[in-house]
């Protein structure tokens, strides 16, 4: 039998090691989290000066009593050294989760600058 709490601890360790502190910003208040930007892909848009960049992000589930919500939250990335806000990302898709057996191991977020 798989111990999913151990798997969550492993995922938390890996995301923490390669990710950085971030904030899930909501009108009712900010929540600290740890996020890892897994991939970035620019989306060309005809007639626009700027191409938005879509990002696939993994967020640690430990410590988040309220799950992320694409309708209510923005993800604010922080500088790993100074903890100054670097960028605020809009969540663009329903929040995914890796949650076998009902234990959320990590959250999967799609975001755009």
Describe this structure in words.
This protein has a 6-stranded antiparallel barrel with strand order 1-2-3-7-5-4. The protein is mostly beta strands and 113 residues long. The protein has one domain. The longest helix has 15 residues. β4 and β5 form a beta hairpin. The protein is built from 1 helix and 7 strands.
Explain briefly what this protein structure is:
With 113 residues, the chain is mainly β. The chain contains one helix and seven strands; from the N terminus they run αβββββββ.
User: Spatial order of the strands in the main sheet?
Assistant: 1-2-3-7-5-4
Helix content: 10-25%
Give the overall pLDDT as a whole number.
90
> Would you report the number of β strands?
7
Secondary-structure class: mainly beta
| Straight-line distance between termini | 41 Å
- Rg value: 15 Å
Number of helices: 1
Spell the H/E element sequence. HEEEEEEE
Number of domains: 1
- Segments where pLDDT lies below 50 for 5+ residues? none
Strand content: over 45%
List the keywords:
globular, six-stranded antiparallel β-barrel, 113 residues, mainly beta
Protein topology:
Elements: H1 4-18, E1 20-26, E2 29-42, E3 53-60, E4 74-78, E5 85-91, E6 96-98, E7 106-112
Antiparallel strand pairs: 1-2, 1-4, 2-3, 3-7, 4-5, 5-7, 6-7
């Amino acid at each position: 039998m798989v111990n999913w709490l151990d798997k969550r601890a492993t995922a938390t360790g890996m995301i923490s090691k390669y990710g950085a502190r971030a904030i899930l910003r909501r009108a009712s208040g900010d929540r600290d989290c740890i996020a890892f930007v897994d991939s970035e892909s620019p989306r060309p848009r005809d007639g626009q000066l700027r191409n938005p960049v879509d990002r696939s992000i993994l967020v640690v589930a430990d410590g988040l009593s309220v799950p992320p919500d694409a309708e209510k939250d923005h993800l604010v990335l922080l500088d790993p050294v100074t903890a100054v806000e670097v960028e605020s990302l809009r969540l663009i898709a329903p929040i995914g989760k890796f949650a076998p057996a009902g234990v959320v191991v990590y959250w999967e977020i799609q975001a755009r600058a």
